[in-house]
Amino acid sequence: MTEYQQLAALLFPHVTETVDDLERRFPPRELKEGARVTRFAPSPTGFLHIGGLFSALISKLNAATTNGLFLLRIEDTDKKREITDGVSEIIRGLSAFGVDIDEGVIGFEKETGDYDPYQQSRRAAIYHVVAKKLVEEGLAYPCFCTEAELTAIREKQEALSFDTKGYYGEWAVYRDTPFETQKQLLSAGKPWTLRLRSPGDPEKRVAYDDLIKGRIEMPENIQDVVRLKQDGIPTYHFAHAVDDHFMRVTHVVRGDEWIASVPLHIQLFKVCGFRLPKYAHIAPIMKEDNGGKRKLSKRKDPEAAVTYYAEQGYPKESVLEYLLTLANSNFEDWRRANPTAPQSAFPFNLKKMSTSGALFDLDKLNDVSKNVISVMDAQTVLDKTLDWAKDYDSQLYELLSADPDRSRALFSIDRGGKKPRKDLAKWSEVKDYFSYCFDALFETSLAELPENITPDLAVAVLDAYEAAYDPADDKEQWFERIKALCAPLGCTPNVKEYKQNPDAFKGHVGDLSTVIRVAVTGRRNTPDLFSILQILGEDAVRERLRSARAAFDQ
Question: Do 406 and 349 sit in the same domain of this protein?
Fold first, then answer.
């Protein structure tokens, strides 16, 4: 037995399994040629960021377009920063916006798939098997440095103005410690971390082809980085290499803040004898700020949290549609050419992603969402609004669910056809948008009259209309009655005529319709007025006409 093997036995006496055993337990996946296996691997240390959702979506699409597989792995080794039920928050966030998981963590202490466990905190035994092998091969060693000693090393390097600071070369004080000394320190119970014995050369460079950024070349890693912390828990760098290999991940999609770590990650895969996955590094989602750009901030920007979009009531289809416009610049052209095609039909391509940060624009999201909602049928809009209101607006839920047929008719106004109205961007806007249809929410507005209509004329219009109003009229008969009111009131039924000679008339037929609209809805701009009157019913219409008349008369 070599000294390296003896050292490994001292460090890992409990480890009896081998890397070959792991290879048999987690064999290569039986997928079609070219199928990609991707993963989203967040830490449960806070809310799901919109950037995280974006990254998960790209990973999901990258797998889906190749008939591959997308898995969720939870990197929960940092227990100090973990929040209560953070895993469920992540899963709810992904699920709420349609990023469905094929394999991995699917709930609190729930997993699906044959490459489990999918939470790093439950994979310690796997990491220790690989770590033991590296020690046996002389590729890792125990370091007994205290925090004070490591601080002293950094301070010396700073005092000497070293360009490269860290634990490497002559500064790696335990790198070449004789076995007998290591044995004595271990016997004495000296705490240790496990470090990589880096084979990196400061004169050499490493290159790789990023699927988004293109060819990238950087210096080799020379740092003897920590593999296992004193409690036996792996660092992110080591854990992700082991996990990606034994979960057979082929493509890693992640934020471009990880590019600086790629030389280390390439080195880790090589010393472990693992096949390197393909990397695709996504630029961060940016926000305009005082003429410049910055990353969306968890502290400053409420829209950074995925929960914001659920609370506001954005349909998941809208959020995904907008994220796809950020993901591939050709998505909008594709959507115009395929207005009714499902999002899954879009030929997503990693190579068409921007290499610089996409600019997140809530106004653009609202425009996209209005388009998405405009093509939904009335029943879908009602169902989705009720689903949202059940959690976020109990009053709206009660109003809509009290009479589903009436509510469906309400959402049917100006819906369908080639030019549907595009007024709603999110379900939280529904209450205000349709408030006039519910007595509990309706308020008469005196400030909404057309500028050329005096209160006296408004009173006269309402008196005349109430006398002529017949709820049995169809739309054409209804409008003819309004036109017939014009001449006796000094107005014209012809808008063009009014525009040609405005001094000759008090108003036109559109003004009369507006007076009626304001009386029964409190607004000058609403969907089709005739449909609204039909839904309100005769009693409510007459009551509102009289209330408005009294208000205008004062």
Answer: no
